[in-house]
Design a protein that fits this description.
24% of the residues lie in helices and 31% in strands. The protein is α+β, with helices and mostly antiparallel strands. The strands form 5 sheets. Strands 6-7-8-3-9-10 form a 6-stranded mixed β-sheet, with helices on both faces. It has a 5-stranded antiparallel β-sheet with strand order 13-12-11-14-20. A hairpin with a 2-residue loop joins β12 and β13. The model has no long low-confidence stretch (mean pLDDT 89). Its EC number is 7.6.2.11.
């Protein structure tokens, strides 16, 4: 249970980590995700030895490392700023840490070439950092961090300085490199799409501790509470009430859900979460939730529709192409259907 308390400029206590507890599996790509100020970077820095904990322990396998100095820990860090030495060549930057350890020159040359080949920069060793693009500089920083064969590689918002296209390319590259090396990657980001596309497991942080840890599919499809549901992608929150058995009532229509609601009294208010792409629009029909399309926006691969239900709740619906123009038009009357596996009770 890691705890870290800072004192603000006004003198009040800020709990950057509040009994945070995580288990990261060897050889996985683990992502810590949250808005700014929720503790993920503080925990990353504590693993690296750049912050000391007020309480709690950090283990790497069976070895406790929170008492070790940073240089003794078998971890390395890639920061948001690449921190490359501008007066050194690419190869010399990658070799720097190995030279500080006094490794034989022949071994260093071989290792440097291996790392540059790994990041697809094998022919750029003689260049200076300012002769490379931002994405290439990021790969040099990655090669330098990997050269010392750390057991864990920590990455702190390390793609945030890149433009959109380069970020997409580096996401693929990082995943490939992690798979090829088998090193445990711990990646900090506030970008939900980045987390979903890269992580084997994701920890969503809030108020100094993880709210949920799971696979990308679990985080997206089965959020444990409203905070996680709201932070990951677009989502609708719909007021409902507990019906008999495992069903909820929305706009006077009973909908089955897969969650076990056996302990919730009948008639209790609930909040449902459902993704816009998991709502289907039909021609109006009985025994369904009814609504009216109040706006629609063409998004290329989908139509983004706002639908006002008969109980005045407004929901967002993403309709995939091809579009049924008989149903999709502003002020058109529609009915909505939602499969049980796509409904999630997030507050009860």
């Amino acid at each position: 249970m890691a705890t870290k308390v800072f004192t603000s400029a006004e003198g009040s206590e800020v709990r950057a980590l509040d009994q945070a507890n995580l288990e990261i599996r060897p050889g996985e790509f683990f992502v810590m995700l949250s808005p700014s100020g929720c503790g993920k970077t503080t925990l990353l820095r504590a693993i690296a030895g750049l912050e000391s904990l007020d309480a709690g322990e950090i283990y790497l396998g069976n070895t406790r490392i929170d008492g070790m100095p940073p240089y003794s820990r078998p971890v390395n860090t890639v920061f948001q700023s690449y921190a490359l030495f501008p007066h050194l060549t690419v190869a010399e930057n990658v070799a720097f840490g190995l030279e500080m350890e006094g490794k034989p020159r022949a071994d260093i040359r071989k290792r440097v070439q291996e790392m540059l080949d790994l990041v697809h920069l094998g022919d750029r060793g003689a260049r200076k950092p300012d002769q490379l693009s931002g994405g290439q500089q990021q790969r040099v920083a990655l090669a330098r961090a990997l050269a010392k064969s750390p057991k864990v590689l920590l990455l702190d918002e390390s793609l945030s300085a890149l433009d959109f296209k380069l970020r997409r390319q580096m996401q693929v590259e990082l995943k490939r490199i992690q798979r090829e090396t088998g090193i445990t990657f711990v990646f900090v980001t506030h970008d939900q799409e980045e987390a979903l596309s890269m992580g084997d497991h994701i920890a969503v942080f809030s108020k100094g501790k993880p709210e949920q840890v799971g696979t990308p599919e679990e985080i997206y499809d089965k959020p444990v509470n409203r905070f996680v549901a709201d932070f990951i992608g677009d989502i609708n929150f719909i007021t409902a009430h507990k019906a008999d058995d495992n069903a909820v009532t929305v706009a006077h229509i009973d909908l089955p859900v897969e969650q076990d609601l056996g302990k919730v009294p009948t008639g209790s208010p609930l909040t449902l979460a459902v993704r816009p792409e998991n709502i289907t629009l039909h021609d109006p029909k009985e025994s369904a939730i009814h609504g009216t399309i109040i706006s629609q926006t063409f998004m290329g691969t989908n139509m983004r529709c706002e639908v006002q239900l008969d109980n005045n709740t407004t929901v967002l619906v993403r309709v995939p192409a091809p579009f049924n123009t008989d149903v999709l038009h502003e002020h058109g009357k529609v009915s909505l259907s939602i499969r049980p596996q796509h409904l999630r009770v997030v507050d009860q």
